[in-house]
Amino acid sequence: MDAVAHAFLDAAELKKLTGRDQKSRQIEWLRREAIPFRVNATGHPVVTWAAVHGQRNTEPTGWQPRALGV
Is 52 part of any domain? Predict the structure, then answer.
């Protein structure tokens, strides 16, 4: 497994963390617990291990969503 793939929780790890199967319930739990995440194109939450371990700056420097782009 490469370093990038291991940087993110897989589906089983996300289910174990949240205790939820359904993606909307996982997202709800992550928001309530204030764990940073993104939603991918299929609507699933994507969580980094850094976020789980409480490392604050998990975003690349200067990153912003395209929706907010200039």
Answer: yes
User: What's the total number of domains in the chain?
Assistant: 1
pLDDT digits (tens), the chain, 70 positions:
566 558 999 999 999 999 999 999 999 999 999 999 999 999 999 999 999 888 765 555 556 666 665 5
Which stretch of DSSP H or E encloses residue 3? helix 3-6
Query: Token pair 């969503």 is at which residue?
Result: 65
The residue segments making up the domain with residue 12 are: 3-57
pTM: 0.71
DSSP state string for 6-62: HTB--HHHHHHHHS-SSHHHHHHHHHHTT---EE-TTS-EE-BHHHHTT-S--SPTT
